[in-house]
Write a structure and sequence with these properties.
alpha+beta; 3 helices
Length: 174
C-alpha cells in the first residue's frame, strides 16, 4: 500500500516538473496586425551627374545633373495596442503588400520581420519609422503642460443708474 502511494506521488511529481519545464521552453508566438494603408513617401533622391571625364568639365562650370525624387512605400500596420509605420529595407525592388490583409510579425533588435499569411508566406524585413499607441477612448489628449490662465471676465461699463440700483439691493431692509 505504501509502495503504491509512493509510486503515484512520484509520477505526479514527474508530470508537474515536466509540464512547467515545457512552458518555459515554448517559443513566443508572433504578433498579429492588420495592414491598414499604404502611402508613397519620399525616401531619397536619385542623382545622375557628371563623372569621369565629365567631372573635368564640371570643374569649369559646365554641369548637367538629372535628379529624380525617389518614392518608397510606407505601410500602417495596426495591432490592438500599437500602430507601426513601416518601410521595406529592400528599396530597389520592394514587394507591395496587400492592404486590408492580416500579417504576423516579430521585432528583433531594430527590424520588424513581417509575413503576410494570405500571400506567399515569406518573411521580409522592414524598418520601423514610427510607433504610436492606439487610443482606446477615441479622444486624443495632449500631454504637454499648459498652465491654467484665466482671463478676467469682461463686463460692460457700469452706468450711474446701475450703480444706484445695485446699492439699493445691497442695503439691508429697514
Amino acid at each position: 500500500m505504501k509502495i503504491a502511494k509512493l509510486l503515484i506521488a512520484a509520477i505526479a511529481l514527474i508530470l508537474a516538473v515536466s509540464s512547467s519545464a515545457g512552458a518555459k521552453n515554448k517559443k513566443k508566438q508572433p504578433e498579429r496586425g492588420m495592414l491598414e494603408s499604404m502611402q508613397s513617401v519620399p525616401c531619397g533622391v536619385n542623382e545622375r551627374g557628371l563623372a569621369g571625364v565629365g567631372s573635368i568639365f564640371g570643374s569649369v562650370g559646365v554641369q548637367h545633373v538629372n535628379s529624380h525624387e525617389k518614392l518608397c512605400p510606407q505601410y500602417l500596420l495596426r495591432t490592438d495596442e500599437m500602430e507601426y509605420h513601416i518601410r521595406p529595407l529592400e528599396t530597389k525592388h520592394p514587394v507591395l503588400l496587400p492592404v486590408g490583409h492580416e500579417g504576423e510579425f516579430k521585432i528583433k533588435k531594430d527590424k520588424l520581420f513581417l509575413k503576410v499569411v494570405d500571400q506567399d508566406k515569406k518573411t521580409r524585413p522592414y524598418q520601423v519609422v514610427s510607433m504610436e499607441p492606439v487610443n482606446s477612448g477615441g479622444t486624443t489628449e495632449n500631454s504637454s503642460y499648459r498652465p491654467a490662465t484665466r482671463l478676467p471676465e469682461s463686463r460692460p461699463p457700469e452706468t450711474p443708474a446701475d450703480k444706484t440700483a445695485r446699492q439699493m439691493t445691497d442695503r439691508p431692509p429697514r
